[in-house]
Specification:
This protein is an alpha+beta fold. The chain is built from 3 helices and 22 strands. The strands form 6 sheets. A 5-stranded mixed beta sheet has the order 6-12-11-8-9, with no helix packed on it. Strand 16 and strand 17 form a beta hairpin. The chain starts with 6 loop residues before the first strand and ends with a helix.
Length: 359
Amino acid sequence: LPSDVTDVATLVNKDPRGVPGRSEGLFDNKDFPALSDGIWYLHVRFMNSNGWGPTAHYALRVDTTPPPAFTVRVNSGTDNDNPTPQISYASADPLSGISFYAIFSDNTLIATTTADSFSFPPQKPGKHTFRIAAHDNAENVTEGTVETTIKPIASPIATLTGAQIFSGEGSLGLSGTSLPGTSVQLSLKDARGNLIASTVARVDAVGDWSKVFTEPLKTGGYSVEAVAVDGRGAQSLPAIISSIAVQERPLLTLGGIGITKTGLIWILALFLFGGIGGGIYLGRISKEGRTRRVLIAKRDVTNTLGLIRADLLKVLDAFADKKLTEEEMARVTYALQHILDTINKTERYIVENISEIKE
């Protein structure tokens, strides 16, 4: 309040030029009773030694009512293959006015706008619910919804190319056919459904396409989803290639069987534990009775383990730097084959000697 003011007069009504009629004393704030919806005006004037001054007016717009209900319409229809449907809607608020519209697709906020129509970005095929929330300037909200079905285009055909897929190598190749004028979006996923990589294959004029995932993969199971997309952004339902197995590349082949690095480690472990077990068994027998055949069998097992040990040391030496050259690969193959030959030559003889030992 100015320092010379001695009286204050106030009035609230719906007259934009209302004038307070009497003094209410000296104060600088006041609580008024609740007002109903509509446009109200606060009028204030001051008095000093020269009399009453001019009246100041302040508009109060009270709006507790949501905007009126409205209809949402899909301009291209509610059942077609248009991936970017346009919707129309219109609402009005006689008190505070419409502030903005919030646009939702399947409960996901897509955009906010002040326009009374909206074109969606490309939507996936299937049923969708479009929801429009009209917000007025007093933060009241009214919603309208419409359901639509977007039809898919034809799905692509996808097949694996090449033979086995080995871990640590980027060699997962795919090929197939799709509608001319489309592209094929490829998604590579692991056994848990996690996305590993994605790429796009171009479709030629006759509908053929091919693509190779170059990402090195770990050992395990994978799947690929292939989705066709046309120039409008319309999509197909996914074509899925499941049960894609990525394995270790064999280090060598024995007897027509590929042996991987992991398999080789298991083989070496079995040889070692088998030799230790045989030695313990014969040692136990020799304590119970040192017959001639026991001594012979023990000697033969000792000699066999010596040969196997020597060959295993060669294999372990080749693996010392965790890499195998062609020369080292040849030595490993020879050593493993020699181990098998040693076992085969002595197995029958030792078994026959042990079986003739009398307890």
